[in-house]
Amino acid sequence: MQKKFDFVSSDDMAGFRLQRFEVLNWGTFHKNIWTICPEGQSSLLTGDIGSGKSTLVDGLTSLLVPPQKIIYNKAAGAESRERSLRSYVYGYFKSEKDAETLSPRSIALRGNENYSVLLASFFNEGFQERVTLAQVFRGRDIHQSPDRFYVIANRDLSISEAFSRFGKEISDLKKRLARERGIKVFDSFTQYATEFKRRMGIENAQALDLFYQTVSMKSVGNLTDFVRQHMLEEPPVQERIEGICRQFDDLNRAHEAVLKARRQVEMLTPIATETERFRLLEAEISGLKQAREALYAFFAGQKADLLERRIRTRKTAYDKMEASILSIRAKLETLRSEQRQLERAISENGGRRLEELTELIDKLTSDRKRIAAKAELYMRYCKDLKLPCPSDESSFLDNRSRAAEGKNSVVRQREEIQNKQVEQRVRQKEIDAEAAFLATEIESLKGRRSNIPYKNMMIRAAIAGAAGVSEDVLPFAGELLKVRDSEAKWEGAAERLLHNFGLSLLVPEEHYAAVASYVDRTHLEGRLVYFRASAERGRHAASAGPDSLLRKIEIMPDTPFYDWLEAELGRRFDYACCAGGEEFRRLGTAVTVKGQIKTGGLRHEKDDRYRIDDRSRYILGWNNREKLLTLQDGLDKLLERSREIGQELQQLDRKRKTADGAWDRLQGILSIETFAEIDWHSLAVHTAKLEEEKRQIQAGSDILRTLQAESEKKTADIRAQEELLGHRQANLGKLEEGLNRDEDLMQASKETLADYPGDDRERRFTQLTDMMHDALGERKIAIETCDNCQTQMRGWLQRRIDNEEDKSRRSSGQIIRAMQ
After folding, report:
1. What gap in Å lies between CA 594 and CA 601, rounded to an integer?
2. Of 779, 750, 762, the residue nearest 304 (C-alpha)
3. Distance CA 72, CA 34 (A)
4. β-pair partners for 117
5. Pick from 491, 500, 635: which is nearest to 572 by CA?
6. Enclosing H/E stretch for 134
7. 11-203 in CATH: which number?
């Protein structure tokens, strides 16, 4: 940072000038603090050869010049690096030959326990400012460059004051200096140089290069080259070229920006036009959608108006119908009064006996029809059951006795059929369930190569999903084992012996925790055995005997569980395979080809719940073709047996229906307890006698015939008026029902209309009214067609909305493409 004002009275003392230079343990300046005090004046450093002049100059140079540029002892005319920072810090002062190797060895004044300090104090008289620069060195290895750190202070420091009495570790000194106010500590020369150049106003790094060249210069050589290299700054030709290029780039970018803006205006104009069209389309779509939302309320209002007019019409018709009914009732009352007068006159002229005969004849005729109908049904039952049709009480009682016996037989037959049906249905259900299980198993086997049951596969799939791994990572032992093709006759025995082990899941060590946690917290709906198949537990089993079952088992070669399976099989299933007889009784652990297992010399087991060659239960191997064929054959047999049972059930059902019909007929016969209940012939004879008596009375009186004719006419008139009254009352009921229905519909329509907001109602209803002709054409709205018209208009509106939305999407696409 350059100072603007300098109040020094003379230029002789301008700038920062060296006031004092101190060294501690630098080169041959050992133990004590050595000081030079120029006091800001020009000073001459003289002395004999080897007195340390170059050593002090190198110390001052080290404070100001980057380490990589310094050639120590250059002031003494050294052309190579005969001295180094390490030689100054350790204080090398002579060389001597090593007694053993005879090679030269440098002798040092100091070791790694000592430290070195260089300190220079500068003062700027014009600004009354001080800057102290210091560097602290500590050897760490005689073959490596010493450690150092850099110090800058804005006040006067001295080695005795600031760089002593800090303890044994140099880091304590560094921490103490860093805590002091006005002092900065640095680990790199770059940061240190940047800071002291800033404080001392050194703007150009070339000034320090010139200082370095002149402070240790023995001869100038070519003065022109020296001035050009060390006193003149290199013209910034490259920077100027780069500046011109940047200006050209800026002008070029400005020109391109103008052209781009012009193109943007040209491109944005159609976008703005299309955007306005898009906005209008969206407004049209919004209006159509709002009109669609108002359809229910609009047609509810239309229906309410139509219903209101029809209710008024129906109320008028209702009033007229009520008046007509009152008139008919008055006329009926008059006719019935006249009819009663005629009946009294007929009674006075022999009509009473005629009434009695008429009543008796009507009653007997009704009873005869009823009994004849029952007798006809009874005779049909007898014909169906091959029983004789009874003509008297005795034959009727015989039929009842036979019917009672037949009913007991039918009851037993029905019970027997029902029991067979239940048995067959239970059997068919079991077969169907077994067939469904086999079908599921077959379908599962078709999608894989292993023989593991479907239920176990589902449990594994759930575990693998919860653990976040593929099912192949968690194999069943049976998927990795098979009986060798050359040992096919031992396949059944091996399947029995290894069945439970083959259904065991093998879990790698890295997935054991996830599997164990899932299994513990989940209801598996089945049985699961799994092994923690750690690679460390896999070990080679002892050599198996020549007849061992292990020699008949093959392990999948490329499985990572090969060693574990080999060890586990050797530990648990080293059974001798023998034919039986004396050999089986002699051996301690053996298995026969028929599946008898002997363990530990004492325990024997043979599980013949299933055939030993039943391949449907095989679980070993990585080819399930044989199991698929066996299961498919079993499924075909089950389906055939299910069809046979279905046919048997149909036959039993037909037998049951036949027995039910016989039981109903027998029950019908037994429900008639006396012969009189079906004896209609006696009633017919009695009725004929009474009708003859009635004809004789009517033939003997002309007045009676006239009165009866008049009575019949009145009766006909009364019947006609009653029919008319019933018809009018029915119409009145229909009118009332229609009126109530219309009132309910009108109330519902008004509620629908009231639900639509009133502030937007008039505008939307006017919009829909204008649309009706386009939507419905010449179709008129009626109460019955109102809902259909609403549906038709909704479809028309939806088509318009879809059409406008299609236009909107195309417009949006055009806008997006134009913007892109």
Report:
1. 18
2. 750
3. 19
4. 24, 136
5. 500
6. strand 129-138
7. 3.40.1140
Distance between CA atoms of residues 722 and 333, nearest Å: 11
Query: With contact defined as beta carbons under 8 Å apart, do 618 and 495 qualify?
Result: yes
Tokens standing for residue 801: 């909305």
Measured between alpha carbons, how far is residue 424 from residues 195, 417, 428, 435, 644 in Å? 106, 10, 6, 16, 10
Among 53, 146, 149, 150, residue whose Cα is nearest residue 108: 146
Across the chain, which has 820 residues, the per-10-residue mean pLDDT values are: 52 81 90 88 82 85 84 62 79 74 75 88 88 90 83 90 81 86 90 88 71 60 58 69 88 90 82 86 84 81 85 86 83 76 64 66 78 76 77 75 81 87 90 90 88 92 93 93 92 92 94 94 93 68 78 92 91 90 89 92 90 90 89 90 90 85 78 73 72 65 65 83 87 87 85 76 81 81 84 88 88 84
What the block records as the tokens of 151 is 């110090």
Is the Cβ–Cβ distance between 73 and 85 less than 8 Å? no
Task: Report the run of H or E that residue 359 belongs to, with start and end.
Answer: helix 352-384
Strands 481-483 and 553-555: antiparallel
Q: For tokens 């068919």, what's the residue?
A: 428
The answer to whether 116 and 26 have CB atoms below 8 angstroms apart is: yes
> Residue 367 is encoded by which pair of tokens?
């009873």
In the chain, the amino acid numbered 466 is A
350 DSSP assignment? I
Evaluate the CA torsion angle 704, 710, 712, 714 in order and state its sign.
Answer: negative
Q: How far apart are CA 122 and CA 196, in angstroms?
A: 11
Cα separation of 400 and 226, whole Å?
155
Rounded to an integer, what distance in angstroms lies between the CA atom of residue 734 and that of residue 318? 10
DSSP 108: E
Cα–Cα nearest to 514, from 573, 473, 457: 473
Instruction: State residue 267 phi and psi, 5-degree precision.
Output: -80, -30
The whole-angstrom separation of Cα 764 and Cα 751 is: 18
Q: Whose CA is closest to 301, among 788, 765, 771, 796?
A: 765
CB 107 within 8 A of CB 118: no
Nearest to 303 by CA among 756, 797, 748, 735: 748
